[in-house]
Write a structure and sequence with these properties.
The structure holds two protein chains of two kinds. Chain A is of the alpha/beta class. Chain A is built from eleven helices and 22 strands. In chain A, strand 21 and strand 22 form a beta hairpin. The radius of gyration of chain A is 24 Å and the shape is globular. Helices cover 44% and strands 4% of the residues of chain B. Chain B contains 32 helices and ten strands. In chain B, helix 11 runs antiparallel to helix 18. The interface between A and B is large, with 123 and 132 residues.
Chain lengths: 458, 796
């Protein structure tokens, strides 16, 4: 909008210096607690629970067991989904070795296989819940109940903002909000400034950033002018209250955001080569949409956003995993490979932590559905695959292992809270120091503390 | 906060379990032979590393596999060798070690602080309430400054008691009332207003986390929960004695059988987020409820944060794990029910029939489409059609549940199941009432539902008897009577926490901060009361006045402390802001009660697709009638997965965690909401249209309750002239767009695109600028500025 500058001068010119102090104090950071390479994080959240067995942790033993039936009695410690008559399912995918470490990955990862030397694959992570919303809350906020601060909010609270004109925690949701909704990027009990800001693929990226249609900049300016006069007079009657000035300043900040945001979001400034690399404008429409979010994530991090979460839905392949996972893998392959290359090319990879993870893994077996022809996999909290890359991460390694069918993690097994401790550590934050006193209780992301997963670190 | 945060499932707190239960065993029972002085069998148990290394027989632990761990096998005596020699460790200790190893055997040293070395001042809240000195008043405990002017006072007290600003006429009447009785008369008028209950019920709903839906995967409606919301409003309006209010919410079904209000009240016990689907584990979801209700009861009524005691003896407060599980056992026979319960004369059922007809129409359309698509997809095997079929199948299931909101049923509990009225979804199995036996409750080391240890009997928290001399009653082990005993123990004048906690909450809502600042935590970690004598005086007054909440208001409001000038400004809460905008623009609907209505919200949020298990949620549809959309915020539908963004951005309460006190932080996006949102623009235009032809000073007074001064009036007029110029051209009315959503198919991994069905009801639109002349549009811009002003947003 053309009037942002004048609006800003207008507000700055009204003697509201006090407000800057109040608002800045609110956004002050608590850390870092130690020196770390990474200062930003891009978290690629695969909603639905991608199968480790069909992506990065193949299980040839399942070829032999394929279609072997067995019975699992219904009991109160199993979800109904996981009980009854079941059969083992082999992976319908081909695998090939990639990178210097020779990890076997699904051949559908054509592009991503070329960047694995920058990636650390981790096969020992263990979730606790086999239910999507509780598991998502757990991965995002450290507890299975909604309402606690998300890891992005903790990071924002810990490290503060780099660019005050942008939110420090941004979420790029898929076409639909995930199960459990916005509580997945909640600020919880942390100050509201740390809440994740979802940028919708359509509509105004930040809610009500633009006025209703037909409201011209001139009208806005005249209205704001009046508001400013009223607030100045009010301030004279209540001179000693900083929060009044802070509120005036928040209008100014809002309109700076209004000016800055469209520039960051405008992918048109990227060259064709870059767009092609991310799959934007290519034949795969899903890759195009994910590519846009990945490129946007790079731009946001570059512009000083601390934590960007990209959500890719559709991994809940109970049935027909060859179709469903196959399409998902082909959709993310180019975008995530491009993100890695792009971060490396721009030197951002050193100072950015990249995480790829679902909320849990999938089972080696399946319930008998659709006459036993719909080969897929149910939920599995005891084994999964995720990967990390970027500053401080031991690139080109495979850490941890699962058993021969991929049912359970058996080496370097760690719960989610250790994963959280490790991610914070990579960002220069110490989970045991990153605390917030809430209702008389010191709260932290890991809830009760956790262990650093040293095998993932350089 | 309330560890409503602490998930019941599995091994959340194993590290603490180690410190509390495992390490002491290793030190006391094992290190004598396997430690610093000797290492028999070459085993040293002093570190995780040395346990992993093990001894002559191999590694002592295999993290994640207790069965294969020698340490566990030895203390179990599983291989014919028993350790410690000639001694069997108690089963709960063995279970703790097993759970610890299964959880990966994390090693975390115990903190030295325990409640054994407690300081007497930390126990302040457990001591009996001091006897009330009748000669004292609130002001004798404080040194109040001079009183504020009347204009400030009436705004302060009207917003405090009703959540709405005083009208200009009310302000003038009070300012001009020279009687010494003007202030008490004003207080009486406001306490008698039905708006009072709406305001104060909102505070209560913050604490109990009221919502109309259950959250998680499907976020199914709790179709009759609105009756609990209206019950709370009635309780405040009728000044229901607080001890009765407690008894009804905790055990209304048992204590007052046949009493409808009391049955509705038990909805309190089910307010937490909860869902059980085919993908959840029954033992876990039941435990989630049990943990939630235990925490919620303790935090709400006793100001105690119990979360820590779920896994280990509370580090800071004298709350042993055993006490936690004994209190939990009170709820072991509490089952979810939704029995028939005729509507009450006090309930608003006037709008039910048309609202039901509307939802029926929407649901019927969805069902028709579902059936149609089912046929088509079966014939064609087209995955696109199958996905759309699943969409309407999901919508049909959601509407089916929602339609129950119009039925005379109660969202309640009973002791043992009620045949034919059990609740909680098709994936739960209930025994017949005749075969019912309450489940045994065991201590769960580390909160792990899979390693039950010692069985406990129901009981109350022992700390009040130990430290305050208030005796603990016996709690029966029968199906019925458990909750009655707990309720009676809490709602007793001798319970030192109950009256203190509630009067402290009331104080907080009047002054912005409680006498003890952490209103949900009266334990060691909560802030100490700044004036404990005053808090006790209030608590004693409360009890002496028959637990009358209004009597506490009167005592506070009549004090000079309440009336003093120079109070820090408080930004009004989100609901007060929205309701005030509706009120001053003359758009506020006066209707009270009934199922939640659906307000106008940000269009992008309304059109946002939301994942539901297997498909997508229906589109957000605002109520077709303006009078429904413009109800007070407390009467709007509270959906866990979709909070009104205006409420959210102005620091609305979490619907999942108990909110003891609102945050009032200023964030930039609040400016967008108030300055740019369609809702505020629409309301401004509505008032401008109503006051067409009237001078701007009158409009100013309508919004801010006072006349503008001369300079303000000059600015207003000049701005209005300029805006009239800028508003010559009317903006075109945009055509309404169908809602289009895409979802990634779980079967094919491909994207599917849906065009959602239109709402069949005729929608009563807000006035559009194109329907108003330039002068009205210009005045609307002026009103927009007034609604954004600090004067409108703050109370002093």
């Amino acid at each position: 909008m053309s009037t942002n500058l004048s609006r800003r001068h207008l507000l700055l010119g009204s003697g509201m210096g006090l407000g800057s102090v109040a608002l800045s104090a609110m956004m002050a950071e608590q850390g870092p607690h130690h020196k770390a390479k990474a200062k930003n994080c891009i978290f690629l959240l695969m909603e639905g629970g991608p199968s480790h067995i069909d992506t990065f942790d193949p299980k040839p033993r399942l070829d032999a067991l394929h279609m072997t039936k067995f019975q699992k009695e219904r009991n109160k410690f199993e979800a109904n989904m996981n009980t009854g008559e079941r059969y083992y399912v082999k992976s319908p995918f081909q695998f090939r070795r990639a990178g210097k470490m020779g990890i076997e990955i699904n051949t559908q990862f054509e592009e991503f296989s070329s960047v694995v030397d920058d990636v650390c694959f981790y096969r020992g992570l263990r979730a606790e819940s086999v239910n999507h919303p509780t598991a998502l809350y757990h991965l995002n906020t450290g507890t299975q109940f909604g309402g606690d601060p998300a890891i992005g909010a903790w990071t924002s609270y810990g490290l503060g903002t780099i660019n005050k004109n942008l939110p420090s925690f941004i979420v790029l949701p898929d076409t639909a909000y995930p199960q459990g909704g916005a509580a997945n990027w909640s600020n919880g009990f942390l100050p509201a400034i740390h809440q994740g800001t979802p940028l919708r693929p359509t509509g105004s990226p930040v809610l009500d950033m633009a006025p209703p249609p037909g409201v011209t900049p001139e009208r806005q300016r005249a209205t704001l002018d009046l508001l400013n006069t009223l607030n100045s007079k009010h301030q004279q009657r209540h001179p000693s209250h900083a929060e009044l000035a802070a509120r005036v300043e928040s209008y100014e900040l809002a309109f700076r955001m209004q000016a800055e945001m469209p520039k960051v979001l405008d992918l048109a400034t990227e060259n064709k080569q870059t767009l092609d690399m991310y799959g934007i404008g290519g034949p795969n429409k899903d890759a195009d949409a994910i590519g846009r979010r990945c490129l946007l994530a790079r731009r946001l991090v570059q512009a000083g956003v601390r934590f960007v979460q990209v959500i890719v839905m559709g991994w809940d392949s109970h049935d027909y995993i060859e179709n469903a996972h196959g399409a998902r893998i082909r959709a993310i392959d180019k975008p995530i490979a491009a993100l890695m290359k792009d971060l490396k090319r721009t030197g951002l990879l050193d100072e950015t932590l990249v995480v790829w993870s679902g909320e849990f893994g999938r089972s080696p077996d399946n319930g008998i559905r659709r006459d036993g022809t719909a080969w897929g996999r149910d939920h599995n909290a005891t084994a999964m695959s995720c990967w990390l890359a970027g500053g401080g991460v031991k690139a080109g390694h495979i850490v941890g292992a699962t058993d021969e069918t991929g049912l359970k993690g058996v080496e370097v097994v760690h719960p989610i809270r250790d994963f959280h401790v490790t991610l914070l550590h990579l960002l220069g934050l110490d989970d045991s120091k990153l605390r917030y006193l809430h209702a008389g209780r010191e709260k932290q992301l890991s809830q009760t503390g956790g262990e650093l997963i040293r095998d993932l670190l350089t | 906060m309330l560890p409503l945060l602490a998930p019941a499932a599995f091994t959340q707190d194993v590290a603490d379990l180690f410190a509390a239960r495992v390490q002491p065993v290793l030190v006391q029972e094992c290190q004598g032979c396997h430690g610093a002085s000797m290492t028999l069998s070459k085993l040293d148990v002093r570190s995780r590393e040395s346990l992993l290394r093990g001894g002559a027989r191999g590694p002592a632990i295999v993290p994640g596999n207790a069965k294969a761990s020698l340490l566990v096998r030895m203390i179990e005596g599983a291989d014919g060798v028993q350790m410690p020699p000639a001694k069997r460790l108690p089963p709960d200790t063995v279970a703790a070690v097993r759970a610890w190893v299964d959880a990966g055997a994390p090693w975390k040293e115990a903190k030295t602080e325990t409640w054994a070395n407690y300081k007497p001042e930390d126990l302040w809240a457990l001591r009996p309430v001091r006897t009330r000195d009748a000669a004292k008043t609130i002001d004798s405990f404080l040194k109040p400054g001079p009183a504020a002017d009347r204009r400030t006072l009436i705004r302060r007290v009207t917003i405090d008691l009703t959540g709405l600003p005083p009208s200009p006429e009310e302000i003038d009447a009070f300012v001009n009332d020279k009687s010494t009785q003007a202030w008490p008369r004003l207080i009486d008028r406001l306490l008698a207003s039905p708006r009072y209950g709406e305001r104060w019920a909102r505070h209560w709903l913050d604490v109990v986390r009221y919502a109309d839906t259950g959250g998680y995967s499907n976020d199914f409606e709790r179709p009759n929960a609105w009756r609990y919301r209206d019950y709370v409003i009635r309780a405040f309006n009728t000044d229901k004695p607080y001890d009765r209010f407690i008894r009804e919410q905790l055990a209304g079904d048992e204590l007052y059988p046949g009493n409808a209000e009391a049955l509705i009240a038990t909805g309190f016990l089910r307010m937490g987020p909860w869902e059980h689907t085919g993908m959840s584990v029954e033992a876990v979801t039941r435990q989630m409820f049990l943990d939630d209700v235990t925490h919620s009861t303790a935090a709400t009524f006793l100001g105690l944060t119990l979360g820590c005691a779920r896994c280990h003896d509370h580090k800071f407060d004298p709350l042993p794990t055993k006490d936690y599980y004994r209190m939990q056992a009170v709820f072991a026979s509490t089952e979810f029910v939704r029995p028939a319960l005729p509507f009450l004369p006090a309930e608003n059922v006037a709008g039910l029939a048309p609202a039901k007809a509307h939802m029926d129409a929407v649901a019927t359309l969805a069902k028709q489409r579902m059936d149609e698509l089912n046929k088509l997809q079966k014939q064609s095997k087209d995955p696109e059609l199958f996905e759309e079929f699943k969409l309407y199948q999901k919508h049909t299931a959601l509407y089916k549940e929602s339609l129950d909101r119009f039925e005379p049923k109660a969202f309640a509990v009973s002791s043992g199941p009620l045949d034919g009225a059990t609740d909680g979804g098709p994936n739960l199995r209930y025994p017949k009432a005749a075969q019912y036996k309450p489940a045994d409750i065991h201590i769960l080391p580390g909160g792990n539902v899979q390693s039950p240890a010692e069985k406990v009997t129901p009981g109350v928290l022992g700390l009040l008897e130990r430290y305050g001399g208030y005796p603990s009653p016996a709690v029966p082990e029968t199906t019925e009577g458990r909750r009655s005993a707990l309720a009676n123990w809490i709602a007793d004048p001798r319970n030192p926490l109950t009256a203190r906690v509630m009067t402290n909450r009331i104080w907080q809502y009047h002054f912005g901060e409680g006498i003890a600042a952490d209103t949900n935590n009266f334990g060691k970690m909560g802030k100490k009361p700044t004036n404990p004598e005053l808090l006790d005086w209030l608590a004693a007054t409360f009890i002496e006045n028959g637990w009358s909440v209004k009597s506490v208001h009167r005592a506070i409001l009549l004090s000079a402390a309440y009336q003093q000038a120079d109070r820090a400004p408080r930004r009004v809460e989100a609901e007060v802001l929205r309701d005030s905008i509706l009120a001053v623009t003359g758009e506020l609907s006066p209707a009270t009660g009934g199922p939640g209505t659906v307000p106008q919200i940000n269009e992008d949020v309304a059109r946002q697709a939301q994942h539901r298990m297997g498909s997508l949620a229906p589109v957000y549809r605002p109520s077709p009638k303006k009078s429904d959309r413009n109800r007070r915020t407390i009467y709007t539908f509270q959906q866990r997965s979709l909070v009104n963004p205006m409420v959210e951005v102005f620091n609305g309460p979490s619907l999942d965690l108990s909110c003891e006190r609102r945050d009032t932080a200023t964030i930039p996006t609040q400016a967008f909401t108030l300055f740019n949102s369609q809702f505020v623009h629409d309301m401004a235009l509505a008032l401008a249209e109503k006051m067409k032809g009237q001078p701007v000073r009158k409009v100013f007074r309508r919004v801010l309750g006072r006349w503008p001064d001369a300079t303000e009036e000059r600015t207003l007029k000049a701005t209005l002239d300029r805006l009239a110029q800028l508003n010559r051209e009317a903006p075109p009315r945009p055509a309404s767009q169908p809602v289009v959503h895409t979802i990634t198919s779980e079967l094919t991994g491909a994207q599917h695109r849906f065009v959602h069905q239109e709402d069949p009801a005729a929608f009563e639109h807000n006035l559009h600028p194109s329907e108003a002349p330039p002068a009205v549009r210009a005045m609307a811009d002026v009103i927009l500025a007034l609604l954004n002003s600090n004067e409108f947003a703050y109370v002093y």
